[in-house]
Amino acid sequence: MADMRATKSQEEQWMVQNQVFRIYDLVYRLPPHAQSVNFELRRENHIEYLTKSLKQLGPSFSVLDANRPWLCYWIMHSIALLGDCVDDELENDTIDFLQRCQDPNGGYGGGPGQMPHLATTYAAINTLITVGGHRSLSSINRKKLYAFLLRMKDSSGGFRMHDGGEVDVRACYTAISVASVLNILDERLIQNVGDYIVSCQTYEGGIAGEPGSEAHGGYTFCGLAAMVLINEVNRLDLPGLINWLVFRQGVECGFQGRTNKLVDGCYSFWQGGVAAIVQRLHLMVNEQLGLPNTFKYDCKTESDDDSSNSDGESYSEGASSPLNDICEPIQEGQSNASPPTESNNIGYNFIKGPIGMRPIFNSMALQQYILLCSQEEAGFRDKPGKRRDHYHTCYVLSGLSVCHYSNTKEADSPPLPGHVMGPYSNLLEPVHPLYNIVLDRYHDAYKFFARS
Amino acid sequence: MIGEEEEEDARIPISQRPEWADVRPVPQDDGPNPVVPIAYTDEFSETMDYFRAVYLADERSPRALQLTKEAIFLNSGNYTVWQFRRLILEALNADLCAELNFVNQIARENSKNYQIWHHRRWVAEKLGSEVASKELEFTKEIFSQDAKNYHAWSHRQWVLQALGGWEDELAFCDELLEDDIFNNSAWNQRYFVVTRSPLLGGLDAMRDSEVAYAVKAILAKPENESPWRYLRGLYKNDIKSLVNDPRVASVCLDVLTDKRNLVHALNMLLDLLCNDYQPSNEMKDAVDGVAPESNPPGTNLVERVCSVLIMVDPIRANYWEWRKSTVCVQD
Ligand SMILES: [Zn+2]
């Protein structure tokens, strides 16, 4: 019978699954002290690996010669997540280097003299915000950048990656994300981009790179974050998206990118980030489910355990409109600037209020996969048997940060020790989930660009 | 064979090639203290220095075309080189069939790169419908190595929509699914064909036979998420009809009665119950048959389904708890 024969998907799945289970088994059989060492984040090693790479890369990195701002972002963002930063000299060198990648007509290329590209523009902007400070933030030519973004706008409403380049959901996200964080997002950029992204949500519930393609973790993050930033997220089928998302976490405890594919550490952020965003969309989700907008399913802390219903049901005061949480006007005293246009407040307001919903994924399981299966002596990898790289180090750490703060009531309030796997010293810095920038760096940039 | 290898090894530096004697290479402007500096090989540096020279001079010549090829062999991810190559191809009115062969060569080495596929789409678009079957054949070859290659699937869908070739596409999906029923990319392609093929009459015409196809796949492997999502997708935006199709509830019942691999069946049943499905006594009994004893049969069926899921699917316990809480409010 054909039925009895394992298919290629099954064989690969069982192989990875067994390898992962063997690791868990090994660790859980160790005596307590030896066991706890395995759950430690090897912070110093990671920082050393990252800092070294910032200073020199071998010839094999030639294949990433058109992705150097990405290398900057993966490294600098990882270091920031780890609560550290590089010395002033390296920071200045980073600003100078990215300046050489900036095109005279706006946007950033993959290296000096290369054409501007939306993805490397996103990487460069996020790096400069992560470095922070006046010199870094003022090195961005926002006027020219806006012109570049407009040039990349396609008639479909989507964006193309570069002059003559491909149109997809990644391009939409990177364009909208930089425009939003730099306070240059306007109607012309937003026009019809929502139509394009909506057309990419598939029958499975997740979002694909192009209309008709398969639902995929990376594109689901990009599509969802972009829809939030343009204030059109209610056009997506959110319950369907959530159902697809939660099924991407498997018995290996990590996330896969697509249905019936293998677990991979980088989806800790792509899928985990989606979960973090969803936790702040509770009013929209309630509306789509036909629930009263007073319905609440928020995080319980030890102190208010007795004040909420045992079945997780309680009622909040004041929530009157499903758009309340993301459309509030800017609060006075946050900056002495004149309020930016409405669409540029969204990212700020999104992160400001309390988190409306408890996590829908299994944070502890994901942390276990990250610490025991993704972590190497230095750096992080996709899965056991693969080699570390900067991309996976960045997105595994970003996912770990999402886990740490998934049970907090506010974006930056410290989590309870019980929510951080391993010693509490594993705790990472929180990120803004729509941009994937460390939160305090984001706030500095927000103030800076609200002024100008 | 040895002769060929020697030929490759004996690369003549561009600076020593007579046809390049008039060109002054342009070094990369990395600045005095670049970050993420790459220790390029001499060959890489030299090739890119000459590329920058022709790129800056906007020289759309045969030698520049040849140079872009060398640069692409060194780093197929350099979109600037690809874009300039397209400008040269246009300017020279070059033979695009030969170009397709060149892309074949690169794609076989590295099939997971955006630039190659974007370039291929550009070339195929210019060549038009006469290359449709060639393009479908090429993606098929990629799938024989990696049946879930995302770029190759996108390309295939673009070919079908832009150049045609729908005739055998459903049979192609059959073939791939027969080979690996867990291949979700093939399921996604099936959905694409069923909903978009101009030859099949659309989803309404196909729904009935496709439901049967999905149900059969589910009964063979109830743990396979793909056909469950596919089945749900056949009634996208028409949940009423999903609830009213007796085959849907029936496949849930069959799987529940078997008491193994319950999760997807319960997930589907939950969807039905949240949309006014009136469960038969048989269905209620099947749920009771797998429910924990702490949940007496008297309680609401939706709650019981959620309780079973919390128990049998602990990785998603948070999600099922949430689903349970939303049901409590609705009632
Ligand atoms: Zn990965």
Rg from Cα of chain B: 28 Å
* Main sheet attributes: strand count, strand direction, barrel closure of chain B: none
Q: Topology as H/E string of chain B? A: HHHHHHHHHHHHHHHHHH
Largest β sheet strand count, sense and barrel closure of chain A:
2 strands, antiparallel
Indicate the proportion of strand residues of chain A: under 5%
The percent of residues in helical segments of chain A reads: 40-55%
Q: Which ligands occur here?
A: zinc ion
What does the overall shape of chain B look like? elongated
The order of strands across the largest sheet of chain A is 1-2
Distance between the termini of chain B: 76 Å
Mean pLDDT rating of chain B = 94
Relevant terms:
heterodimer; A: 452 residues; mainly alpha; Glycosyltransferase; two-stranded antiparallel sheet; two-stranded antiparallel ribbon; 20 helices; 4 strands; globular; B: 331 residues; 18 helices; 68% helix; disordered N terminus; binds zinc ion; EC 2.5.1.59 (chain B); EC 2.5.1.58 (chain B); CAAX-protein geranylgeranyltransferase activity (chain B)
Any overview of this molecule?
The complex is a heterodimer of chains A (about 450) and B (about 325). Chain A has one domain (about 15-55, about 65-295, about 340-450): Glycosyltransferase (Alpha/alpha barrel), CATH 1.50.10. Chain A is about 45% helix and about 0% strand. Chain A has 20 helices and 4 strands. A two-stranded antiparallel sheet of chain A has the order 1-2. In chain A, strands 3-4 form a two-stranded antiparallel sheet. In chain A, a hairpin with a 4-residue loop joins β3 and β4. The termini of chain A are far apart. Residues about 300-340 of chain A have low confidence and may be disordered. Chain B has helices at about 1-10, 40-55, 60-75, 80-90, 95-110, 115-125, 130-145, 150-165, 170-180, 185-195, 200-220, 225-235, 240-245, 245-260, 265-275, 280-290, 300-310, 315-330. Helix content of chain B is about 70%, strand content about 0%. Chain B starts with a helix and ends with a helix. Among the domains of chain B are: about 40-95, no CATH class; about 255-330, no CATH class. With about 325 residues, chain B is mainly α. Mean pLDDT of chain B is about 95; it is low at about 1-5. Chain B contains 18 helices and no strands. Classes of the chains: A mainly alpha (about 450), B mainly alpha (about 325). The complex binds zinc ion (ZN). The site of zinc ion has 4 residues of chain A, from loops.
